[in-house]
Amino acid sequence: MQILISVRSSSGIAGGGGSSGSAVLPVGPVIHSLSLSSTHVVGAGSLVQLNANGSLSSSPLSSGDYSWTCQPIANCGSFSALTGPTVYWQAPSTSGSYALILTVTKDGVASSQTATVTVTVGSGGLVINPSF
Question: What is the pLDDT of residue 1?
Fold first, then answer.
C-alpha cells in the first residue's frame, strides 16, 4: 500500500507563479500485539511462547513476514523458528535480561517491537545435610 501526498501552493516565492509537487510514501505493516507467556523465567532451557498479530491493509501477512531476533546476540538462547507469528524462545544458561525483537516486513517496509524477558539461573544443585 502507498499513500500519495500532493502539495500545491497558489503563491510562489518572490512573486513567482504557484508550484506543486507530490510524493508517494509506502505504508508498512502494523503490529497490533506482541504477547509473551512469561516475562521472567527461572532456569536454563525454560520456554517462553511469543505470539504476534500484525496486518497490512493491502495484503495479508504470511508467516515469512514475521521474523525474530534476540539481543544481546552472544548466548541469547534459541527460537523454535526464526519466522512466524507464534514461536517459542528457550532461555539461555546465563542470567540476565534479553530483548526479543519482532520485525514484520512487507513490500520492503518494516515495523518492529521489542519485549524483554528476565532469566534467572540458579548457582548450584540440591544440598542434603543428613542428620541422625
Answer: 46
